[in-house]
């Protein structure tokens, strides 16, 4: 509290700002390229067919539930690459995995996706992005 009144940064803020300096240009460019590789991109633990954590599993299930067209979706397994795992968190300034992007825009993690699915916002985002399967093809 005193630090904020005096305009001082906490050690956590300084550490967070310092850690952002460690994302290499190469890694940043690779993430940027991955984010733009499909209309819907998910950075997750594991793969859609074999998620390695409950949050990734739940997110993939919600994408299917919403009727996401698989041809407009790409997933990246962050467990395969430590630079990607650390880099994506820095790129978005979001501490958890999975992370969902639609048309290059960061949407959020599992908690955000669950909330958006419950209130209908996720479906609206997908409709606007034109990434849903036609009604007749949905299960």
UniProtKB/TrEMBL annotation:
<dbReference type="InterPro" id="IPR004480">
    <property type="entry name" value="Monothiol_GRX-rel"/>
</dbReference>
<keyword id="KW-0001">2Fe-2S</keyword>
<dbReference type="GO" id="GO:0015036">
    <property type="term" value="F:disulfide oxidoreductase activity"/>
</dbReference>
<dbReference type="InterPro" id="IPR002109">
    <property type="entry name" value="Glutaredoxin"/>
</dbReference>
<dbReference type="GO" id="GO:0046872">
    <property type="term" value="F:metal ion binding"/>
</dbReference>
<keyword id="KW-0408">Iron</keyword>
<dbReference type="InterPro" id="IPR033658">
    <property type="entry name" value="GRX_PICOT-like"/>
</dbReference>
<dbReference type="GO" id="GO:0051537">
    <property type="term" value="F:2 iron, 2 sulfur cluster binding"/>
</dbReference>
<keyword id="KW-0479">Metal-binding</keyword>
<feature type="domain" description="Glutaredoxin">
    <location>
        <begin position="40"/>
        <end position="107"/>
    </location>
</feature>
<dbReference type="InterPro" id="IPR036249">
    <property type="entry name" value="Thioredoxin-like_sf"/>
</dbReference>
<dbReference type="GO" id="GO:0005759">
    <property type="term" value="C:mitochondrial matrix"/>
</dbReference>
<dbReference type="Pfam" id="PF00462">
    <property type="entry name" value="Glutaredoxin"/>
</dbReference>
<protein>
    <recommendedName>
        <fullName>Monothiol glutaredoxin-5, mitochondrial</fullName>
    </recommendedName>
</protein>
<keyword id="KW-0411">Iron-sulfur</keyword>
<keyword id="KW-0676">Redox-active center</keyword>
<dbReference type="GO" id="GO:0044571">
    <property type="term" value="P:[2Fe-2S] cluster assembly"/>
</dbReference>
